[in-house]
Amino acid sequence: MAEQLTGLADDRALLGRTSTAERVSDILRSRIADGYFPPGTRLSEDAIGGALGVSRNTLREAFRLLTHERLLVHELNRGVFVRVLTVQDVEDIYRTRTLVECAVVRGLGEPPYALDRLAEAVTEGLRAARENDWKAMGTANIHFHRELVSLAGSERTDELMRSVFAELRLAFHVVDDPRRLHEPYLVRNRDILRALEDGDRTGAEQLLERYLEDSLDRIVEVYRRRVGEDVQGGL
């Protein structure tokens, strides 16, 4: 927990003078999305509240909000934990991603598009690959798709997908070979970016749809294998 709390004290500045449960939940959601709190992690009220400098009541309300978003679970007499996803959860996440992300690309209108931040996410992923930092590569991948969604210019869509991408990061944690999961999609992210740079919305949407199908198949394969291993281990 000490390592996971690193940097939370710096995040206190984000709270400003209006320390609210919503702001605390935003910080914790971002931390989950960036991989600092893996599935199954117990969140200590004392440690996190102390790091952020917020009251127990404020933190509990933030936990409640994130539980409603399916990022946390409250276990009676045990505490609050980062949620462990099921195969059905993963399939639903990708169903939502396909509906939203493909619709965003389809509805972009006429080029040129504001792609600077999308390009930065591609560069971020390539740099992480050169440094063999697979956790950072996963974060860059999520950043790419978050910036893709932001092209819609819709605060409601951004808000919806913040929770979806945070859940997605929980799914990434079960993958035993993160390089195999993320590295192929670096090139595919770059291909989507290039299609958009060329003003080819249809091509970009087709690339994105195949990308999401293949990514879902890979993660579900790993989930099913892990479930089988857990069952065998319990026999």
Cα-to-Cα separation, first versus last residue: 31 Å
Q: What composes the largest sheet?
A: 3 strands, antiparallel
Secondary structure category: mainly alpha
Helical residues, percent: over 70%
Mind explaining what this structure looks like?
The protein has about 240 residues and is mainly alpha-helical. Helices cover about 70% and strands about 5% of the residues. It contains eleven helices and three strands. The chain has helices at about 1-5, 10-15, 20-35, 45-50, 55-70, 85-105, 115-130, 135-150, 155-170, 180-195, 200-235, and strands at about 40-45, 70-75, 80. A three-stranded antiparallel sheet has the order 1-3-2. β2 and β3 (about 80) form a beta hairpin. α3 packs across α9, α7 (about 115-130) runs antiparallel to α8 (about 135-150) and α8 (about 135-150) packs antiparallel against α9. The longest helix is centred in the last third of the chain and has 34 residues, at about 200-235. Mean pLDDT is about 85; it is low at about 230-235.
Task: Note the main attributes of this structure.
three-stranded antiparallel beta sheet; 235 residues; mainly alpha; disordered C terminus; 4% strand
Strand-helix topology:
Blueprint: H1 2-5, H2 8-15, H3 21-33, E1 42-43, H4 45-52, H5 56-68, E2 72-75, E3 79-82, H6 87-106, H7 116-130, H8 134-150, H9 155-172, H10 178-197, H11 201-234
Write a brief caption for the model.
The protein is mostly helical and 235 residues long.
